[in-house]
Fold DNA 5'-3' helicase.
Amino acid sequence: MLKEMKDNEFIALDFETTGLDRQNDDIIEVGLAHFRDGLLVETYSSFVYTEKEIPLNVRNITGISNDTLEHAPKIDAILHEIAEFIGNYPLVAHNASFDMAFLMKHLPGIKNSVVDTLILARILLPQEHYFSLGKLADAFGITNKRAHSALYDAIACGELFLKLLPLADDIREEEWDILLKTEDYNPCGLGVLYKMKTDGGKIPLNLSSYYISGNSSEWQGKTNLGEIFSKDGYVGKMLRSFENRNEQLRLAKDIHDAFERGEFLITEAGTGTGKTFAYLFPAIDFALKNNERVIISTQTKSLQNQLFYKDLPFVFTYFNGIPSAQILKGRGNYLCLLKWADLLDNLPILSREEVAIIQKLTIWRFRTKSGDIEELGNINLEREGYLWQKLKCDDFFCLNQNCPFYNECYFKNARRNAKSANIVIINHSLLFSDAANGNLILGEYDRLIIDEAHNIEKTATRNIGITLTQKEFDYVFNSFAQKKSIFIKGISHFLKKNEIKLISAISSDIISRMSYVMSLAKEKYEQMDVFRSVKYNLLEDLVKRMEESVEPLNTSFNRLLEHLEKIGKRLENEEENDMAATIEGKRREIEEIQFKINSLFSPYDENYCYLLETESRTKNVKFSSLPIYVGDILGEMLFNKIKTLITTSGTIAIDGDFSYFMNRTGLARFKEQSLMQLYSSPFDYNAQLKTAICEFIKDPGDPQFYNDTTPVIKAIIQAIPKKTMILTTSYTMLNTIYNNILPFSEELGIQVFAQGISGSRTKIIENFKSSHQGLLIGTDTFWEGIDLPGKFLEVLIIPKLPFPAPNDPIIESRINKIRENGNNPFDQYMVPEMILKLKQGIGRLIRTTYDNGYLFILDSRIYRRNYGKRVLDEIPGKEYRLSSYYLLSQYLREVSNE
């Protein structure tokens, strides 16, 4: 394979083309770069003539037009030069399958080894998120003088390969053993990498343990909260920036009392109160003194990480390092080592996609302490979730103590640690899904803290319902119907041919019936021309087909389950216990699918909303049934079993009243044992925040709305040259504002970052923070969970009050249910939801006592609707009522001089 290599030489190549189709598109520029012993020694480049019209997007990206190519040679005229230049050297390209497809179209006999820096980077940089040539060049400090020029991209690719070579020296023997085997099934140049690797590199990995073991000593100290939270106390001495906050101490004392009395404490603590320390100190003190666990649940990963890696170690020091803590996630987050070994044993029959995921996981697999897939950046679970399904831990196939990897099992070890830890940190999804399944993962517990409690209803609704996806169905049944599947291959040695044939036939029948329903559902969804989801129980012909399919499907399910049960018992009698366990795992998977079909295909429970969706990329169908009102369910399955509950958030009360939150979450039932308290923010909003509300703009429903708001937004960003965020209520609004102000912003030298346009949420925030005067336009997830203190965010624009979308099926169902009960859904649901989300959005602006900011609300309904006073009562800062564009201009002149 490597015989043609000479003195560590290779050719990096890049082609610019008229499109992506090798058969119908043409090469329009060639770039070749010859590297020897780490140095660029020679280059070759040429434009290439084409008779095709170069598409606009290609012209914009490359700068190449048909005029550019008017006097360029045709590809056939330079093939001999290309062939001579590349010789027998290894060829290096980024996304090599693309470039090689075009090269082999013209030089079909080429036999050179090929290195793909895209795949190698994904293997060597498991925690990197962005793998375009430009992003990787930036990460390694490689200068690309002209991106999307074939020659300069080829040079950048070659330099990237040189940067990857030292990292290969850090690959361990057991990792090389696997990676070199995979090269036969998904070639990417691993053999070349192995041969050419240089010394001294270190693969960049940040893999922490999810467990703090603590020590076995008993806590003999006395926890004096007044002393802890004083300027001269523990926190004051340890943190230079600490300031006495009376509300933080009051909150901590109330939490301490709630633990001691076994009460529920429902709190709203304003931004800057210091609520995490306020609940951590009394929670740990109680856990140590009473030998009990305290479960802490958060909505966001960022808060979970902050608690575990920053706040807990700080607090544990006060307790002499005695406490223990564990982050625990859902079973499906963890790698199953048995499944991993099974895939490795079956490399020859795996798809290229399956081999690729093995390549990307190999280095991480041997180094991770947690086995949590969320540690990785090189796996996109939205696109590759069906592949992770084949490797993730699940209940169906768990052999427990019979598993050869039992002692190494990431999930079992995490759960075992969580059973004895003083503090267990989880997310809301696990909290609610586990409660719905009888606490199979967390076990029994009496003390619970729910931070970010404003998300309880939303997250519980998502995790208590039933969902069946096309991918989930295909994953289970394709393993039966496909003759070359790992499952069929594994059991074929133990079954008679007629048994395999029968299983395959029944499975094919089930697949055929389900495919018909799925295809009809997809067709109906596309006819509806909707963006997200529809209530499929209203699609009469679809429901009719679903109901008609239930009986024959159940017949086939039962036959298949019966045959598998017989086979499993026979294997047990023959002491083939591992295979019997595998068969039993498949049976349980099928029973789960059967249960979901029976629940979802008879959509008549009036307390549930039945949704049909398709995935954006694959268009695969997803059926869901979600509870319309989750409060009663939460009360019964969760809160009724808890002795102490602490909920905290900055946004759950409206005008100081907790009734709405208590009713929506089911906590109203426990009012007698609950204390509800407000804890004010230490910020001086009247001094730190100026709030301007534009009264002169048309209602958001008026066609004139965007014509009114565009000049206002332009005026604001021009007058106040500070980092600005615009929070929108839909992607339609986001895109409209983005298109309206982008040219103007670019003229002012303002970088614009927009959700769904400028990369992932994390990348947008990173780029926004590092920009000189950035403008961030976000929707939905940007209303909460981002922390941009000080100069990182000084201006916030809210064009429209964030009412829930009434055409969202679950929102619509809640509205109908409230109306059926004789109540006013607008006043009792829509307005409270809007106020709470508005408070969340405004909370992005002032994050410390040193912050100053400007808030602009462009929705004039605040002054024109009867709910306006309720909204105004919740908006902090000094209010400026602007009744004309002239007053806005005057106001902007004043603030621009501050």
User: Anything to note?
Assistant: Residues 9-196 form a domain with the Nucleotidyltransferase; domain 5 fold (CATH 3.30.420.10).
